Design the sequence.
């Protein structure tokens, strides 16, 4: 192979990689530019044109006054609904997962492996198969259409994943360490607190990011188990886009989509490494 | 160890013994009731004549007969086949090639990888909303191409009965192919360099090396990727809801959308439950052989 050929080869690889990078970035670029245009410019111009006179009109409307069905309060209340669902659901499911993983990794008993296998299966079931009975159970508990109900649902079906993450992480901790601590008289919780918690920062980060992304982005549970006042932002976004009061305002749609995407995007940019680790951990599943 | 435990009270000892099981108890209970119990409940419901409310009058497989006689379910199933195959194959091809190219000691690799993977952080509803605007017939890509001088350019898949499902493929590939790239890249990084050098010494060119040496090593990654992608495909719901709403008509419905419509909007619980069970069997059909081969593989090691 001559130097020229090698050079051309490298060049075409770079060109291809950059072309794909542009393809992946295109929707984000279109969303941002569209959200900064006014509706007249959207009609006149084209998809890829930069805004002539960028304005935050669409963002302000999407946040505060766009209609999501019969109500017109923008996405703000639903954004905070999502926060009220996500924060407790992430914390509780992560905490339970950490303790479960600790037991399944280091305090095995007869049947605990079977239990783990049965729980793993929960990562795979299509949720359609539990939607109807769960709706009955929530109604029975008086939690239908409530934030608490949604938190409960996310915790129940999130624990399978968080347990898996922690269990696989704790398995690599030497059992001798646990034995030695027992000899020193440390009990179950002391060992967890003083030996396992201090080394758990990375796995907590991975799990929290994973759960945060999953629950923030959830649509299925949101649309089935929420009421008018408790809808999460994904459901509100979908309603906003499909509500056509007057003309279609694509700039407001795009601003709304960006508002809904922003929290997870920010987390991804700040902690991408941990996000990818969660994806592959969730993917390999044990 | 015995000496220490003897100094403790018997009560504390017994608690210590039961603690691990106690910690797992709530999860076990929730799992038995809310996973396995609920699956049985849904399975039982699918054998009853339930409509708006559960009615425990069993009618055998009547709901399944009705389900498979329903043209809408037919459309949803064949859409799933079309969508699933295209989504998986295209994601695999793009993901594999991007990973191979990124593995050539590329400068800016980190930045490029970040760009390929960011769609994974965004919800399907956002993806659907964005692509709904990009693909819309009036002002989207069609207008862009016409402005560029192709005055006859037509791109109306979003509103065409036969083509709407392909818009779902486009958006889903955009969202998930970066993830497949990340899986393959991780796999490639695990390939032993000495194998590649040996192939070189044997006179294999780059393509031969990839085809005969590296791809066979990546086989497990292929399998995992196919399982994950088919899992995503079978569960796809939000994307359809946001991008096409299942339309035009019900032309781009997938089973999950069918289930939602019948169970919650049409108050036909029996049919909804039957369709959910079929979805479960679909997932199992993919999963069980995979887990079986995984377990056998790990035993052999």
Sequence:
């Amino acid at each position: 192979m001559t130097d020229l050929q090698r050079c051309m080869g490298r060049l075409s690889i770079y060109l291809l990689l950059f072309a794909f990078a542009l393809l992946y970035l295109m929707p984000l670029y279109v969303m941002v530019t569209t959200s900064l245009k006014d509706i007249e410019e959207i009609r006149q111009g084209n998809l890829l044109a930069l805004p002539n006179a960028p304005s935050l009109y669409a963002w302000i409307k999407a946040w505060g006054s766009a209609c999501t069905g019969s109500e017109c309060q923008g996405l703000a209340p639903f954004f905070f609904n999502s926060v009220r669902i996500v924060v407790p659901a992430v914390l509780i499911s992560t905490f339970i997962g950490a303790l479960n993983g600790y037991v399944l990794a280091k305090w095995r008993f007869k049947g605990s492996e079977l239990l783990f296998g049965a729980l793993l299966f929960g990562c795979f079931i299509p949720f359609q198969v539990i939607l109807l009975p769960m709706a009955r159970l929530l109604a029975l508990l008086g939690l239908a259409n409530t934030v608490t109900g949604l938190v409960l649902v996310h915790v129940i079906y999130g624990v399978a994943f968080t347990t898996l993450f922690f269990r696989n992480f704790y398995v690599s901790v030497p059992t001798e360490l646990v034995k030695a601590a027992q000899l020193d008289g440390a009990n179950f919780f002391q060992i967890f607190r003083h030996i396992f918690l201090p080394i758990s920062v990375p796995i907590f980060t991975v799990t929290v990011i994973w759960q945060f992304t999953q629950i923030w982005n959830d649509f299925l549970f949101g649309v089935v188990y929420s009421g008018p006042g408790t809808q999460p932002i994904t459901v509100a976004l979908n309603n906003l886009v499909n509500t056509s009061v007057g003309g279609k305002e694509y700039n407001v749609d795009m601003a709304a989509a960006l508002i809904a995407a922003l929290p997870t995007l920010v987390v991804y940019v700040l902690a991408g490494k941990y996000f990818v680790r969660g994806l592959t951990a969730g993917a390999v599943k044990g | 160890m015995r000496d220490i435990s003897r100094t403790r009270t018997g009560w504390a000892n017994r608690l210590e013994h039961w603690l691990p099981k106690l910690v797992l108890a709530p999860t076990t209970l929730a799992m038995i009731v809310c996973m396995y119990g609920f699956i049985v409940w849904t399975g039982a419901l699918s054998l009853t004549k339930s409509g708006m409310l559960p009615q425990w009058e069993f009618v055998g497989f009547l709901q399944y007969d009705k389900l498979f006689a329903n043209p809408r379910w037919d459309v949803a199933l064949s859409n799933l086949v079309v969508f699933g195959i295209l989504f998986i194959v295209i994601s695999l091809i793009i993901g594999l090639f991007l990973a191979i190219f990124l593995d050539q000691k590329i400068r800016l690799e980190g930045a490029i990888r970040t760009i390929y993977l960011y769609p994974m952080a965004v919800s399907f509803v956002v993806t659907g909303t964005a692509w709904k605007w990009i693909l819309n017939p009036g002002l989207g890509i069609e207008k862009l191409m016409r402005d560029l001088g192709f005055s006859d350019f037509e791109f109306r898949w979003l509103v065409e009965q036969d083509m709407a499902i392909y818009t779902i493929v486009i958006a889903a590939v955009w969202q998930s192919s970066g993830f497949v790239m990340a899986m393959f890249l991780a796999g490639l990084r695990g390939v032993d360099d000495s194998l590649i050098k040996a192939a070189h010494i044997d006179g294999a060119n780059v393509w031969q090396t990839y085809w005969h040496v590296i791809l066979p090593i990546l086989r497990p990654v292929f399998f995992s990727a196919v399982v994950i992608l088919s899992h995503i495909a079978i569960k796809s719901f939000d994307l359809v809801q946001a991008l096409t709403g299942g339309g035009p008509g019900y032309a781009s419905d997938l089973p999950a959308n069918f289930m939602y419509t019948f169970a919650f909007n049409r108050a036909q619980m029996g049919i909804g439950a039957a369709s959910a069970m079929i979805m479960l069997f679909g997932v199992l059909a993919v999963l069980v052989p995979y887990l079986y081969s995984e377990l056998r593989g790990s035993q052999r090691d």
About this structure: DSSP finds 14 helices and no strands in chain B. The domain at 62-128+168-300 of chain B is CATH 1.10.3720.10 (MetI-like fold). Residues 10-45 of chain B form the longest helix (36 residues). Residues 226 and 236 of chain B are 15 Å apart (CA to CA).
